[in-house]
Write a structure and sequence with these properties.
Blueprint lengths: L3 H14 L3 E3 L6 H6 L1 E2 L5 E2 L1 E3 L8 H15 L6 E4 L4 H16 L4 E5 L9 H9 L1 H5 L8 E2 L7 E5 L2 E2 L3 H18 L25 E10 L4 H7 L14 E7 H4 L9 H12 L7 H11 L2
Parallel strand pairs: 5-6, 5-8, 8-10, 9-10, 10-11
Antiparallel strand pairs: 1-4, 2-3, 6-7
């Protein structure tokens, strides 16, 4: 089995060369070359990581799913839930890799988008208060497309993390969906309970949904933030210590990109990673954009 360190070094180069890591210098969209990127966290960035089109690079997609499968195989999880949208193709590829590489059939599912975009877990809680009304009168109004059980061990899958809000929202949707399915006998499937699910009568057990798996970590502080989530004051978010598992720590592998990037590009990205705050100054941003487009 290839080590995480080897996967990390190899994958970041391919992700950059094939355009899934974009910068002011190699961005496909002219708008991004002219403006950069505003992240969900509100921070401006001269680089962006987007895995949504990775299915267009079949060899790279295969390698990513193989790396993720090697990592996830070291954990005891019953079902993997992909965060829409980037996590959806990933869980499918990972499930295949889990079986072919580790002889382990892997159940999967994915979160559905909320009726309105929620950028924070607090916004998600507000939307869930009126979910049935906002979702309309069609379908089953599921928060998650999966057969979930009250004692399932669930792993959340995504492409990357700048902060943890999208993962906390996905975890909230999984827990709420277990409650919704368990509340209605028509939504529970006792005849097809997987061998790994153990029932305890009618006792309501909150699913274990504290393992997060993704490819690239943008923020070194995320791991501690996950552990500190147990101190979350809002009980509606189901505070727990969250375990983050990922392939690439961007700051650690950035030197691998020195030979791929232009010298000015590499220096700018390195400086941004060291001090993001200085790049929130409008004039510094303008100067950097002008340098990249000269």
């Amino acid at each position: 089995m290839i080590s995480r360190q080897q996967w990390s070094g190899d994958l970041i180069i391919d992700l950059y060369k094939e355009g899934y890591m974009q910068t002011l210098w190699n961005a496909v969209d002219k708008k991004n070359r002219a403006e950069g990127w505003w992240l969900k966290s509100g921070i401006w960035s001269p680089w962006f990581f987007n895995m949504r089109h990775v299915g267009s690079s079949p060899k790279l997609f295969y390698d990513i799913c193989s790396a993720m499968a090697d990592m996830i195989a070291q954990h005891d999880v019953d079902i993997l839930i992909g965060i829409e949208m980037a996590g959806i193709p990933l869980v499918g590829g990972i499930a295949v890799a889990m079986f072919t590489q580790h002889k382990r059939p892997q159940a999967i599912g994915f979160t559905r988008p909320l009726p309105k975009k929620a950028r924070t877990s607090k916004e998600a809680l507000q939307l869930l208060q009126n979910y049935d009304e906002l979702a309309g009168g069609y379908g089953q109004k599921s928060l998650v497309e999966a057969r979930l059980y009250q004692d399932s061990v669930v792993g959340i899958v995504d492409d990357m993390a700048t902060d943890l809000e999208s993962k906390i929202i996905a975890r909230l949707l999984v827990i709420r969906e277990v409650q919704r399915q368990g509340a209605s006998s028509s939504r529970v499937f006792p005849a097809v309970v997987p061998h790994y699910c153990t029932r305890t009568g009618n006792k309501a057990i909150t699913p274990q949904c504290n393992k997060i798996f993704y490819i690239l970590n943008r923020n070194r502080q995320n791991r501690q933030k996950g552990l500190d989530f147990i101190n979350e004051k809002d009980p509606q978010l189901y505070p727990a210590s969250l375990e983050l598992n990922y392939i690439i720590e961007f700051d650690d592998v950035l030197p691998s990109l020195r030979t791929c990037m232009r010298p000015q590009e590499y220096e700018a990205i390195s400086a941004f990673q060291e001090n993001k705050d200085q790049f929130q100054d409008e004039q510094i941003r303008k100067d950097l954009i002008k340098l990249a487009n000269s």
